[in-house]
Amino acid sequence: MNRFNILKLTQKVNYSTAKSILRNKTIKTLLKEDSTNVAVRGWVRSVRKQKQISFATINDGSNLKGIQAILSSEDAEKLTTGACVELHGSLIPSPGREQTKELKVDGLKVLGECDVKRHTTEFLRSIGHLRMRGNTGSAVLRIRNAASEGLRDFFRDQEFIMTNTPILTSHDCEGGGEVFKVSPIDTTNPQEFFKKSVYLTVSGQLHAEITASAMSRVYTFGPVFRAEESLTSRHLAEFWMLEAEIAFIDDLAPLLDVTEASVQQTTRHVLETCGEDLDFFNQWVDKSLLERLHKSVDKPFIRMTYTEAIDVLQKAQSRDKTKFQFPTIWGSSLQSEHERYLASDYCSQPVFVTDYPSELKPFYMRANPDGKTVGCFDLLLPGIGEIVGGSMREERYKVLEQKMKHAKMNMEEYQWYLDLRKYGSAPHGGYGIGFERLLLWFTGLENVREVIPMPRWVGNCKY
Amino acid sequence: MNRFNILKLTQKVNYSTAKSILRNKTIKTLLKEDSTNVAVRGWVRSVRKQKQISFATINDGSNLKGIQAILSSEDAEKLTTGACVELHGSLIPSPGREQTKELKVDGLKVLGECDVKRHTTEFLRSIGHLRMRGNTGSAVLRIRNAASEGLRDFFRDQEFIMTNTPILTSHDCEGGGEVFKVSPIDTTNPQEFFKKSVYLTVSGQLHAEITASAMSRVYTFGPVFRAEESLTSRHLAEFWMLEAEIAFIDDLAPLLDVTEASVQQTTRHVLETCGEDLDFFNQWVDKSLLERLHKSVDKPFIRMTYTEAIDVLQKAQSRDKTKFQFPTIWGSSLQSEHERYLASDYCSQPVFVTDYPSELKPFYMRANPDGKTVGCFDLLLPGIGEIVGGSMREERYKVLEQKMKHAKMNMEEYQWYLDLRKYGSAPHGGYGIGFERLLLWFTGLENVREVIPMPRWVGNCKY
């Protein structure tokens, strides 16, 4: 029997076969290689017809700019914006500044026509399911892909086990109205299938705590759901969360270290692999994008307690009486205007605000010795606001039981959660990153609907 | 401004920082390093108390066997199975055959007690949310993690873009009864939130086709849902699917190539990184496990058409009249007994069965020139049955329209899908891997409920 060697986890290896399985090459790869006679397949982005020779830009999604094709005016007549084509020809150095190589076409086949007599490019972009054919839509997808890779690489390096927390859950988050319920299609009795009421998860945290109680370091990366009725640029009915849970940490410091490192390493990965797309967003969407992304990986994030943050806000308020609309007294929630001031104006860098008053936070956060605050944090980003929330979890049975009763929880329904503190309870903590908000940070875009391929929000669920 | 170098995708790099962010080390890492004075944190798996010295096994989920601790009988008195502990001591070479190093304990702290006067290990394992503390439960999670890594590494290497197809969809799969519907918790009107009926996805394929029509090579890896009422060892209400969609392939051959390579590379990654866990399953669950996994990566998968498969089955039937319960005439579905014979007995290796009769397959599969079959395949594994299904998609507007009418589809609801064939239609195909079934293949376990952390099926949705 042919046995494989067992590789050690810390021995960094390249698992890749590096062998391309598909024979046809992407435009991105063709532009990097030294092939001369090539076939290009993609969609026509634009055609410029001139008397002698014509130009067309062909894109297959593998890069931002696609490839410039030079073709006879006769061939160019066959091309329309949006058409799917196959071009044969030779790759030659380009005299233009926009690209290093271009394709001199000697053969052309239209694979799928696109009637632009009636449909302009703008019209095509307005069709939801074609928006990924545009620069913004496709650049978002490449950055989304890279950000996902960066996060997963980080947790793999740090010996976290990926787990899949369930989407269907029997917890309704204590009757909060923003939960979706699930039932079979052909029944009026929603309890019929599972013999109980079942909901879509709003967070994988409690389930990830189960897994961390056996595997020590775990993360889950999946969709979560909120029946959020308000129309804002920050809320979706379905969005993606990265949630990490870590056993055997004793206080917030290592949790902040991991959070900071995970965001920074992901940012580095996006900077390293999506340069062209970031340049595009930097030029057209947010001129400060590259500068603030580089700053966020070059310098440590700021750390301050909620109490210090309140002090900063009060000083700003006393200098300028009309600065804030909402109160800045100890015990009050930090509003968007406060978070904005702290992250954008005061720190101008990502900032952790830690140790909020217990009364502002959920039951599971670990009580601090001061009796007033809990061991938790929010990570605020300049221009975005909160993108990460995390905390130490209350691991002491009696204290948690007390807090659950105080929060008027259904003790029977959550007995399993309390029981995790009975059978070998471990000190632990964790955090959740809102993936679409992180993508706003990476693109400069302002609405979360632009950074998810098929957004769902109140009143909207196409396809 | 400090600019990063743009790395090329085909230039294979190690994105890892390799720097450990958390100060405490996992047992897996400790056993590989040369540290002598160490701290170990984990859960007690077993304690053997003897007169002079005692032994305990401590596990933190990072490996199968944990670490053996040698301690005074006085210290051992403090330990119970399931307790969460912190041990300080020195790592010394072990005289035992089971491990190369063991921990000589000189300090001990119980972080979380576990009362085993009332609770045996068997009792703890019977508690659903503690089953990951056992060998099987934790080995499954490590293999699940490695299989997920292997799949993602493969698609990254092959220049696929990860996309997230939506979970909430307006398609009810033409009224099939096995769909869950979704509604806000506090309403009796299920159409209230989205202004239409919304369901949980049964497959991301149609949505992935949108993305492939812009990005060429895409994959999605997420949960899908079936309100499947029958209790079988192969069905869950919530399970994970890897779905890939590829533009610019013209026939089945390259699709089979990608499918085969993705399964083989994932298998290699699991073999390379989970040796200890596979040995465990090979010893206790399925003694042919390692042999068949190695064979499946050393030799190509078999490929036969449905028509050839029917011929094979008919010959087997004519040799032994009672071999099959269900008919083996051309046009009839392949039943489990047929699939089992083909994969386990006839091929004894993964086998692709291709080009099924059109009438047996969904509307979107591409019609073959023979007018009777479609360009599709199922991948059957010995002992498991189907784990992958895929096809070329019908990219011709008129042909697809015809097929949709024949299938009595709601044309208005699926107009967007038809329109993908109007605005630059590309030849394309794709496939979906049932992730839990793949994990049965990697573990030798027989029930999909054992390979997902928190299984949901009819009548069961705990936590």
TrEMBL record, chains A, B:
Signal peptide start-end: none
UniProt xrefs under Pfam families: tRNA-synt_2 (PF00152), tRNA_anti-codon (PF01336)
Keyword flag Flavoprotein: no
Domain Aminoacyl-transfer RNA synthetases class-II family profile stretches: 141-453
Enzyme Commission number(s) of this protein: 6.1.1.22
Keywords: Aminoacyl-tRNA synthetase, ATP-binding, Ligase, Nucleotide-binding, Protein biosynthesis
GO molecular function annotations of the record: asparagine-tRNA ligase activity; ATP binding; nucleic acid binding
HAMAP family associated with the record: Asn_tRNA_synth
Family label: Belongs to the class-II aminoacyl-tRNA synthetase family.
Protein name from the UniProt record: Asparagine--tRNA ligase, mitochondrial
Gene name linked to the record: PARPA_10375.1 scaffold 40148
